[in-house]
C-alpha cells in the first residue's frame, strides 16, 4: 500500500518538492526554448525524437540527446525523403515529377507546441513534431504539414478559420509475418477469435480492455484527448473520435494517435492496422472528417445565419466538395488498397451526393444546433496522411465558397447503390488531381507534381506482385 501522505507534514512536503511552474506541468507543448530546457529537465528526459510526416504520413526524422537538441543544433534531412514510395523506392522521373539534382538538405524546425513524452519507451524520451524549411529558411511547399498550413492561410486571408473533428477507424489483427496469408482477427480476453457484427458493442470493446487502457494511458501522457471510443462493424474494428479544434493540431493528433495505437497493440502481441481494406468481405476503415468554418473576429459559425438558417457559404462549401473532392480523392484515398473500400453496397459511400443525416452520402450534414452546423466528409480512408486529407477536404470546400458554387439537391434516400461516381482506381484519381488547374493555387504545383510521381511509382510496384486471384482463376483457365 502507498504511504499515507499525512505522515509528512505539509510544510516539509513543500520544502522537499520544489514548485513546478504551471507552464511546465502541461503534458504537451511549451512556448519558448527556455521552457523546453526546463520541461525536459523536470522530466529527466535523456533523448528526443525530432519527427515529421513524409508523403505517406510515416514519421521521419532524427533522435538525439536532449542536451544537443536544446543547444542550437541545426537539424537537416535530404529532400529525397519526400520523393520515395511507401515501400522505400524512388520512382523514375516522369512528367512534372523531378528530383532535386543536388538532393539538397531541408531543415527540421521543431514546433515546440507539440513537445511531449514518448510513453512506451523504457528510458525517458520525448518527441517533437517539426516543420520543414529550406536550407536558408525558405518555404518548402510540398511537405504535408506545409500543404495544410497553406490551405489554412487561404482561409485566414478572408478572415475565416476552419474547425475539424476527425474520426479514425482501425482494425486489431493477429500477428502475421507472411504477407501471402490473409489477416485474421485476434483473440480477445474471452479466448475466442473476435467476430464481426459488433457495432457499438460494449462487450466487443471489453474484449480488449487492457489494450484500450494502454491507449488511454499513452494518450494522456502525450496530452492527446480522445472524445469517444467505440467498436465498429468489422471484427475487432475500433473507432476513435477526437474533439473538434484547429486543423493543424488535429492532424498532429491523428499523426501521433496512429503511432500510439500501433505501439499499444504491439505491447499486447497483436497488430493495429490503418489499411483501408485489410480483410476481404469486411467493412473498410475510414477517417471521417467533420468540418465547419468560423469568422476569426466574431467566432460566428460561417455556415449559419443570425436567424439560425443555413448560410450561402454553407451551401457553397458543399458545392465545392461535390465538384472538387472527386478530383482530389487521391489525397484522401492514397493507395491501390484504398479503392477496395469504396465499393457499392458496403458502408463506404461511392458517390458525391450530400444529405441531412444521411450516411449513404459522401457529404453528410449531422443534426445539430446552428452554432455547430458542419459537414462530414465520409470519403477519406484511415490510410490517408491526415495533413493531406484535411488539406484536400478543406481546400475543396474553400474553392466552393470563393467561387460561389451551388450544390445539388440533398439526397433523401439511399444513394450508395449501383454506379460509382468517383475515380475507380489510383491512376485515374491521380490524373484528375493533376488536371485540375484550381488545385495549383490551393495545394501548389510542386506538391501535385511530387505527389503524382510518388503515387505512380507505388502503382508500378503494386503491378509487380501477382495476386492470389490471378493464380486462382488464370493459372489453369486461360
TrEMBL record:
Residues 144-478 form the GS catalytic domain. Gene3D superfamilies: Glutamine synthetase, N-terminal domain (3.10.20.70), Glutamine synthetase/guanido kinase, catalytic domain (3.30.590.10). It comes from the Bacteria. One of its GO terms (molecular function) is glutamine synthetase activity. Its EC number is 6.3.1.2. It is an enzyme of class 6 (ligase). The keyword Ligase applies. Its cofactor is Mg(2+). Residues 40-137 form the GS beta-grasp domain. Keywords: ATP-binding, Ligase, Magnesium, Nitrogen fixation, Nucleotide-binding. Catalyzes the ATP-dependent biosynthesis of glutamine from glutamate and ammonia. Belongs to the glutamine synthetase family. PANTHER family: GAMMA-GLUTAMYLPUTRESCINE SYNTHETASE, GS CATALYTIC DOMAIN-CONTAINING PROTEIN. This is Glutamine synthetase. It comes from Pararhizobium capsulatum DSM 1112.
